[in-house]
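Entry 14. Structure prediction run on the chain below.
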Amino acid sequence: MFIDVMVAPVKTARKTAYIELSTEMSALFLDNGAVGYTECWGSDVPQGVRTSFPLSVELAEDETCAVCFITYPDKATRDACMEFVMADETANQMMQKMPLDGERMIFGGFETIVAL
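Output returned:
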């Protein structure tokens, strides 16, 4: 299993817009190979001194930390899905409307090593 993880600062006042757009984006991923799509809204995300989710995305007072997990059967499927989504005009239009600061977003792909 291969998992993409995204951590991003989202304007708290735009939570509904974030949910709506994420729901639309999830369909693109699920229709192109992803087997799971989960969005999470920070509700117990403490500010750290040296490291923390808020520090990692330079979270402002009017923002909430969101985390997204997209699950694929393998990296090859993820790569093909991402290639499709990044080239898709509809996806690009949706990404332009995302109520988050993409420059402060953290994104990475992870190979699953333990899953219970």
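The helical segments are 15-30, 53-56, 75-87, 89-96.
Filed with the rest of this week's runs.
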